[in-house]
Amino acid sequence: MKLSRVLPLAGFAVASTFAAHAETLTVATVNNNDMVIMQRLSDAFEQSHPDIDLEWVVLEENVLRQRLTTDIATNGGQFDVMTIGTYEAPIWAERGWLTPLDSLPADYNREDLLKPVIDGLSYNGKPYALPFYAESSMMYYRKDLFQKAGIEMTEQPSWNDVQEWAAKTNDPANDIAGICLRGKPGWGENMAFVSTLVNTYGGRWFDMDWQPQINSKPWQDAVGFYVKLLNDYGPAGASSNGFNENLALFSRGNCAIWVDSTVAAGKLYNPAESKVANEVGFAPAPVAVTPKGSHWLWSWALAIPSSSSAKETAKTFVAWATSQDYIALAGEREGWASAPAGTRESTYSNESYQQAAPFAGFVLNAIRGADPTDSTLEPSPYTGVQYVGIPEFQAIGTRVGQMVAAALTGDQPVKQALDAAQRATERTMTRAGYIEN
Amino acid sequence: MTNSTLRRFGIGLLAWAVAFVIFFPIFWMMLTGFKTEADAIADPSLIFPPTLDSYAEVQQRADYFKFALNSVIVSFGSTILALLIAIPSAYSMAFLPTKRTKGTLLWMLSTKMLPPVGVLVPIYLLFRDTGLLDTRTGLTIVYTLMNLPIVVWMLYTFFKDLPKDILEAGRMDGANTLQEVWHLLLPLTLPGIASTGLLSVILSWNEAFWSLNLTSSQAAPLTAYIASFSSPEGLFWAKLSAASTMAIAPILVFGWLTQKQMVRGLTFGAVK
């Protein structure tokens, strides 16, 4: 056989071998809007990396958290890339479940990442996850209702201001609640908000000896205020409202004030999703005794489990999905308002983004001002603004959330609910060995 | 109108009312799938401009047919496997009981009382070490084990209703055990076996705990598909309704087609 005939055949055989050995990455993600967009745009990654195939597992946040925890704790190796939050990253890194991401491609521009965000995903100074998008909390209000009531927004509203404004704008006859806040029990639901309220009232979850502080004065002040505010000026059935329900209420025009995630800004500002798009005003999250911990910090980030058999390939994908190039791609293909926010300085200096997202400055300031390592007036032994970075917190937060919801519905007085929450938390912390009997 | 006609009319009306109450959530879900997300969360209304946007987006985000195929394979596979194991065991318990038969039956049923999460980690580790994670074989085995107690119990009840004399007559005519089962037991109890099988298929189709925990991308059935459309941040009711309608459609059609057999089976032996 002539060499000229053999060579193409050999080339074809080699190419087929490579094609047959394309590496498959299984990516587990939460199903929020930004992650769904990432899944949609991943064809660009597969085109530029023909030797990598992506398989997607897209699940609801709580289901995903349980699924990933089972897999990573048993070294199951089912996933190569995982979407995790700032709560899991340091805890899982400490246990050796995640691959450190300190060696990244030269063009990654790590310095561009917002410091509080990457710090929240690090353990012992090393990043164990790279941020895909980040959020804080802020206040939304109806400019038209404020104008009608003769209210002028201040640069930094206080909770007393909010109470006064909620009273003025509350209009049950026209189905408008003066204030909408999270009431649905859960550590990521009502307790995300209540924790920030407790922080700004000068409270903390634990003292330096891990003694729970849930029935302390700042907690009673904060929860008492929250219950009264919502009962006086909140919507009906506030105890079953989470982010989605309040988003629906505000976007339909049923709330005058709402304090919640910065992620809502894009949705409220979009006329296709919101009836009040032209009337939405933005302000920093209100403060009470101290500005410390008055607004939260959360990011969804991509991490590589130690059990993955394709760590280097996974790193290539993670670097791509969290890069400036990806943000530009999302901005160009999906519209700049849909570009993942809160991760990079360069996003906020981008003119296209600034034009598409007039709330960008508020979000950037909120994220920059949130410090998970110093979020309480008195010193505390934990990291996290709206959560406590210990594995026991999911159970504690949800239990306390149920007690707070009971106080909100009037099933229990605030003091009794907080005393019960204190006792339950003491039991959990004693069993976990943080405090002695 | 005579008293009996009135009574029949009343019972008919009650039956329709009960059927309406049971079917209403399904009807509302189907309706919501044709709404926009904004309409889905607005005040409930029967009149709205219908749209297929949610169906389009649902199909764009995930390959429905891949999930549906997995559902069909694991549901029917586990049912066939469960019947193959349960028929001989129910036969022996019904026709050749020992003093431990009742205890064994109760023990089998008691395994259904254990919350599945209690055995999640051991099963996960077992599957990890045997390479069964995210495989249809693994899920089929789990579903078989999950439904086996119910399948054995139902078949045992149906077999018990069959007069022993019929099988004895067969034996007198020289039939061996296999012939007895094949030519007498199975044809005579077919409605019962069919309804047991149908119930097993439905239970497997709707199972969500194991499918979410033991599969990821390759073997995930429709229950995992639905789980990707609810979200604590963002509006999802229309998409979730569209995905749920697509997920239940095959089993709903299957149920309609086989409802005669199912009712016949469930009432089998009820009136002697």
TrEMBL record, chain A:
Protein name in UniProt: Sugar ABC transporter substrate-binding protein
Protein species of origin: Marinobacter iranensis
Any one Pfam family match given in the protein's UniProt record, by short name: SBP_bac_1
Keyword annotations of the record: Signal
Chief localisation class: periplasm
Glycoprotein among keywords: no
SUPFAM superfamilies in the record: Periplasmic binding protein-like II (SSF53850)
UniProt subcellular location: Periplasm
Family affiliation: Belongs to the bacterial solute-binding protein 1 family.
Top-level taxon of origin: Bacteria
Signal sequence, renumbered to the chain: 1-22
Keyword hit for Electron transport: no
CDD domains: PBP2_TMBP_like
Automatic annotation (TrEMBL), chain B:
UniProt-recorded name of the protein: Carbohydrate ABC transporter permease
Transport found in the keyword field: yes
SUPFAM superfamilies registered for this protein in UniProt: MetI-like
Similarity comment: family membership: Belongs to the binding-protein-dependent transport system permease family. MalFG subfamily.
Topological category with respect to the lipid bilayer: Multi-pass membrane protein
Subcellular location: Cell membrane
Pfam families: BPD_transp_1
Primary localization: membrane
The species this protein was found in: Marinobacter iranensis
UniProt-listed PANTHER family: INNER MEMBRANE ABC TRANSPORTER PERMEASE PROTEIN YCJP, MALTOSE TRANSPORT SYSTEM PERMEASE-RELATED
InterPro entries: BP-dep_ABC_trans_perm, MetI-like, MetI-like_sf
Entry keyword set: Cell membrane, Membrane, Transmembrane, Transmembrane helix, Transport
Top-rank taxon, per record: Bacteria
Keyword RNA-binding: no
